[in-house]
Design brief:
single chain, about 15% strand, alpha+beta
Length: about 425
């Protein structure tokens, strides 16, 4: 039997918390919800809660996301009124304790799920039955594009890293509108991932298919990078297997983009000092990935000359485990890179990472906005972009144009 649930002998790692902003999406959503409501009526069950459609959508989407795609055994949510006070705020009051608990009860009566006790004694862990698998996953042929995590177009955090309200203004309206138009195009596009290994597939959040611009320090000119979709975290070998509207994709990226942005800050070009054939991330013959990673860290906050070896040692061990070596002299690597780039070396350890992120985000904003106006879906990976093969020449032109239009003097080579 295909099912999820918990008993006293199971481990918590096999469970995943329901995400109440993940819903069914598209034309199948309406059909599935209608099917459930018809089932309730034919069985003469009482189900009179407010926002029943939203609760049905969230429950089915999470069971599909967690067990079928995520290979977990359980879906759980604390069955506590107090817990759902915060959930209500996150879902514009569409999901609350009464609606959720009643929806779980109805699904149980219809034979789609079973509930078992969680840690606190509540019947908060849910496992689905063969009937659920047949009536929803098989009958409706659910696939990853049938679920969607909704998220705001922009977010803003204060200096303490706490998310704060984004107030309405002419500027925020313009930013939000561009992100919304971009997301709307993506959601109307057939974006299909290629075949991947089971572990990667289980960890991939397929419901994440829209972007949010994240600003920091309560400032719309700090940060602002585009985050969200699952393809941003896919290894490059899997990104190239994606198909957009049935067509194979090509990924173009800016070479040494952050170095170019630092040169642009002083109104100079990297190529005034380096030839196109030279590798700008050169330092003491260390691997390029290590040098680039060290450079990126040293312009961000919380990285100083005193703690650089400790900070980078920890970060490299997690981000680049295959290249990690104990005792690597990251400080010397950064100093060597600064010696190779004396024009911008003074900006290392200057905590300007958020400024550089904003410069990068403006490039992304320009590229995706132009392509969206031309109805060309593009997948942003921060300093690279994927489009279908027939559109790659146009993408290259717009990527080049972005630096010119934004008056960034140092224009990277596009590869």
């Amino acid at each position: 039997m295909i099912a999820i649930g918990q008993d006293s002998g199971d481990f918590l790692q096999t469970s995943s918390l329901a995400d109440f902003n993940t819903n069914l999406f598209g034309t199948k959503s309406r059909r599935i919800i209608k099917f459930i409501i018809d089932e309730v009526k034919s069985n003469k069950l009482k189900f009179s809660v407010v926002n029943k459609k939203e609760n049905i959508s969230v429950l089915i989407a999470n069971l599909y996301r967690i067990i079928y795609l995520g290979l977990k055994h359980y879906c759980h949510a604390p069955m506590s009124p107090g817990y759902f006070k915060d959930i209500g705020k996150l879902t514009n009051r569409k999901i609350g304790y009464n609606g959720w608990s009643e929806t779980v009860r109805i699904f149980k009566q219809l034979g789609y799920i079973q509930t078992v006790k969680g840690y606190e004694g509540w019947f908060s862990r849910i496992k689905y039955t063969d009937k659920f698998h047949y009536d929803f996953i098989e009958k409706f042929k659910l696939d990853p594009q049938d679920i969607l995590k909704t998220r705001p177009s922009i977010t803003k955090k204060n200096s303490k890293g706490v998310e704060v309200e984004v107030k309405n203004s002419r500027r925020t309206y313009q930013v939000i509108r561009r992100v919304e138009n971009y997301n709307k195009l993506l959601l109307s596009t057939d974006i299909v991932p290629g075949k991947m290994d089971a572990t990667t597939g289980a960890k991939t959040p397929f419901a994440n298919r829209t972007y949010t611009r994240r600003f920091v320090k309560s400032n719309l000119k700090l940060g602002g990078r585009f985050y969200g979709p699952y393809w941003q975290n896919l290894p490059k070998r899997y990104r190239k297997l994606i198909k957009i509207n049935g067509k194979e994709v090509v990924e173009l990226d800016y070479n040494a983009m952050h170095l170019h942005l630092l040169y642009s800050k002083i109104n100079k070009s990297l190529y005034d000092y380096y030839s196109f054939a030279e590798e700008p991330y050169t330092a003491l013959e260390y691997d390029r990935k290590i040098v680039k990673f060290a450079f990126t860290a040293c312009i961000n906050e919380n990285c100083t000359r005193k703690n650089v070896n400790q900070v980078l040692g920890q970060r490299v061990s997690k981000a680049l485990p295959d290249l990690f070596e104990r005792g690597l002299p990251y400080g010397k690597i950064i100093d060597a890179l600064a010696d190779n780039h004396p024009q911008i070396g003074s900006m290392f350890y200057s905590e300007i990472g958020h400024e550089i992120a904003y410069m990068e985000s403006r490039v992304t904003d320009y590229v995706v906005t132009v392509l969206t106006k031309h109805k060309i879906p593009t997948l942003s990976i921060h300093d690279s972009f994927l489009v279908s093969k027939p559109k790659v020449s146009f993408l290259r032109i717009i990527m080049q144009e972005a630096f010119t239009k934004l008056k960034y003097k140092s224009i990277p080579f596009i590869k």
